[in-house]
């Protein structure tokens, strides 16, 4: 197993519900370490760049509109198989299909307002971490 880094975003709905701490506890209990973090209110341009892979999809406008609707909490998680572990903690994209006990089952309302983002591959993780953090903003903790 490999130590990996993944990019996590607590989306505007979950920030608004005041559950950042509850979600951080889930990361920590799963063995993931927060090695970088910042709260930001995304501009339209920053949100569109982040989700550029979905540019042609019908939900792109709703997605970027939602992601700019309020502040988000962005973090880098580090640990064994961090990418898959974080995706498992999040649950399915549509909270109605998410397994009980996952972040989306517990905190999300809809496929649009679905509480959390996590990188879906090593390539995405590398791009997404660099999209938000410089090397000097990441603090590996061993
Ligand atoms: P995310 O990128 O936010 O972690 O979500 P994901 O990998 O589980 O899902 P993805 O396919 O990357 O889609 C990105 C976000 O777009 C919205 N979406 N809406 N209406 C739809 O069919 C639909 N499909 C995707 C979701 O909010 C999803 O999180
Ligand atoms: Mg995705």
How many helical stretches?
7
Rg of Cα set: 14 Å
Order of helices and strands: EHHEHHEHHEH
Given the C-alpha coordinates, what overall shape results?
globular
Cα distance spanning the termini: 15 Å
- Segments where pLDDT lies below 50 for 5+ residues? none
- CATH domain class: Alpha Beta
CATH fold descriptor:
Alpha-Beta Plaits
Q: How many strand elements?
A: 4
CATH architecture: 2-Layer Sandwich
Largest sheet: 4 strands, antiparallel
What structural category characterises the helix and strand content? alpha+beta
Bound small-molecule species? ribavirin triphosphate, magnesium ion
How many domains, in number, for the residues?
1
Q: Which percent band covers the strand fraction?
A: 15-25%
The CATH homologous superfamily name equals Nucleoside diphosphate kinase-like domain
The level of helicity is 25-40%
Mean pLDDT: 97
């Amino acid at each position: 197993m490999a130590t990996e880094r993944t990019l996590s975003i607590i989306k505007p709905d979950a920030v608004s519900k005041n559950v950042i701490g509850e979600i951080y506890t889930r990361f920590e209990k799963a063995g993931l370490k927060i090695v970088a973090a910042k709260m930001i209110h995304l501009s339209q341009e920053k949100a569109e760049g982040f989700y550029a892979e979905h540019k042609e999809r019908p939900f792109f406008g709703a997605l970027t509109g939602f992601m700019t609707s309020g502040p988000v909490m962005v973090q880098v998680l580090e640990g064994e198989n961090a990418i898959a572990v974080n995706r498992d903690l999040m649950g399915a994209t549509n909270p109605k299909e998410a397994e009980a006990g996952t972040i989306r089952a517990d905190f999300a309302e809809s496929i649009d307002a679905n509480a959390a983002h996590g990188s879906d591959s090593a390539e995405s993780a590398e791009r997404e971490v660099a999209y938000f953090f410089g090397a000097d903003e990441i603090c590996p903790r061993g």
